[in-house]
Amino acid sequence: MTALKNLPSQKEAIAAALALYGKRPFAVSDIGSQSAWLKAASHDARNLYVSGPMGLASSVALGLAACRPNEEVLALCGDGALAMNLSSLATIAGAKQKNLAVLVLDNGIYEYTASVPTPTRDLDWLAVGRAIFGTASCFNLSDLTADRWKTVPGPRMVVADVAPSTEKTPLLGMSPAQIRAVFLEAAKA
Amino acid sequence: MGEQAASGDRLFRSIEAARPKLVTGLPDGMLAETIRLCAASKDFPYIACAREEETIGVACGAAMAGERAVVMVQNAGLLNSIGAFATMALRYQLPFVVLVTNRGVLADPNSYDIEKYMAFEASVKTLTPVFSYAAANIPDDLVPAAFKWAEAARRPAVIALEKSL
Q: CATH number for the domain including A129?
């Protein structure tokens, strides 16, 4: 990841990524800080907060995207979480799921776990994304505009270097049953 | 058609009868024919995952949208996925069907499969009910019935397919 100076917060990066879309996409977020900051940035019935397994958001998003091919789906993954399910990127590329994008929020730490450094803190996520999805489908968030985003072929990957949070990560405050009920209604065909 | 191909075809027809929105999985010799047929199906996509834990996530994504998903993995693969199975599928009470080949049973004594069988018996069966069937004699309504059970129980239905003497 790049120098910390002037990096956006995770909440700001999530809001910027959602703003790339014309219509609100389904957003599937990993457990911990991604779900918490997604809720804080843009709570919506189309958010699916994964509050159980770490790193599974990209796979859950793939299943959702395959079932709703006419909707856009954005997976919000922390760098530590995605490293736990790195193979899902190869699966998504192989599935050619055009309506799916993966947003990597790279702060180099496990924010929800005492900010312990991630083993991927020196990994070039943009190079990883370009190797898997191709150079035309993987960008830094700071290089994207809504107009440019429309022309990026899917499946897509966006890398956002974010600053470690200086404020306490908010609590999600929703049970799995609540999350399921709200999302199921929003995701009805 | 050989015996394995015939049972693979029967399993595919049972999956088809349940009208899933997607099927996902990883290969096992006993599932190869069914996977080939699913990959060629025009009625649903087959999502080939790189690792078994992903299949649980994919199925959960479908179930979260209220759609039917089928997972096909070997017992060792479901063992790889227990964390996702417990903390996503069970925690969110998501109905889908897992078809797992239970290798290493008495009629399937490859030395490298025995520990998989023992670990499956010791772990998965303590976590959730497992319904076992002979792979060579699959009922036509197996997968539709498994979905009915999963949707009533609000949890995945795990079907163990085994070789028999």
A: 3.40.50.970
